[in-house]
């Protein structure tokens, strides 16, 4: 059976390629392999447009070195509340769109693939949605003009912390880590942070940035 990618996702891929022309595409994908074909996956051409199957899922490689940071892309897409979105999976979390359970609220994703090498975007099965080629909100572009809900609390607003820092944010971090709270980011806090990072397959550098805050929130 002939198949194609949803036009909305082709548009998203084109925007990402134009924004980061030198990005790594190793973990990109849209049409599923034989293993996907045996599952209920949006990477299969499960939607029919006449005699053509339509794939309604797209993976974009996480390549922060080039600037194509999958976590930032996920955050921006979710904050845009784009009505085409069915769900987004990134770093062991899934966020569904308007039609999903707990719309626009991240939940733990327990699938076999943790989605730490790429961000997965699925679009809704209505042709008016999956073939809508309007611009997407991606990092470095304007956001959606008509969001369907207010933005979520932004984990990224937490400051980056490292050994030597002091104050209320460090106390909050220590509470999240479940260790003694003194407001001073010393060796014990660094050790606890590295343990969390290793557990979540993050770079264990002891520096608390966006992904470490997200792991603690989860």
The low-confidence parts are: 143-156
Radius of gyration: 19 Å
Measured by DSSP, the beta-strand proportion falls in 15-25%
The quaternary state of the protein chains shown equals single chain
The DSSP helix count reads 7
3D shape: elongated
Ends distance: 41 Å
Q: Assign a percent range to the helix content.
A: 25-40%
| Sheet with most strands: strand arrangement | 4-8-5-6-7
Average residue-wise pLDDT: 86
Question: How many beta-strand runs?
Answer: 8
Could you spell the SSE succession in H and E letters? EHHEEEHEEEEHHHH
**Largest sheet composition:** 5 strands, antiparallel
| Structural class determined from secondary elements | alpha+beta
Explain what you see:
By secondary structure, the chain is an alpha+beta fold. It is 29% helix and 15% strand. It contains 7 helices and 8 strands, in the order E-H-H-E-E-E-H-E-E-E-E-H-H-H-H. The protein has a 5-stranded antiparallel beta sheet, covered by helices on one side. A 3-stranded mixed beta sheet has the order 1-3-2. A hairpin with a 2-residue loop joins strand 2 and strand 3. It starts with a strand and ends with a helix.
């Amino acid at each position: 059976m002939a198949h194609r990618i949803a036009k909305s996702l082709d548009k998203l891929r084109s925007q990402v390629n134009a924004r980061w022309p030198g990005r790594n595409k190793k973990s990109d994908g849209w049409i599923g392999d034989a293993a996907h074909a045996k599952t209920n996956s949006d990477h299969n051409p499960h939607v029919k447009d006449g005699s053509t199957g339509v794939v309604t899922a797209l993976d974009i490689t996480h390549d922060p070195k080039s600037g194509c940071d999958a976590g930032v892309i996920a955050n921006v897409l979710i904050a845009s509340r784009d009505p085409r979105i069915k769900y987004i999976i990134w770093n062991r979390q899934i966020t569904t769109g308007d039609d999903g359970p707990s719309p626009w609220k991240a939940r733990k994703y327990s699938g076999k693939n943790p989605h730490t090498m790429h961000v997965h975007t699925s679009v809704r099965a209505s042709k008016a949605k999956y073939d809508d080629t309007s611009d997407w909100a991606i990092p470095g572009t304007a956001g959606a003009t008509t969001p369907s809900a207010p933005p979520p609390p932004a984990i990224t607003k937490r400051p980056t912390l490292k050994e030597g820092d002091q104050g209320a944010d460090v106390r909050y971090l220590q509470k999240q880590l479940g260790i003694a709270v003194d407001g001073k980011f010393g060796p014990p806090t660094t050790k606890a942070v590295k343990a969390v990072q290793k557990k979540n397959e993050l770079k264990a550098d002891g520096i608390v940035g966006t992904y470490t805050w997200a792991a603690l929130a989860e």
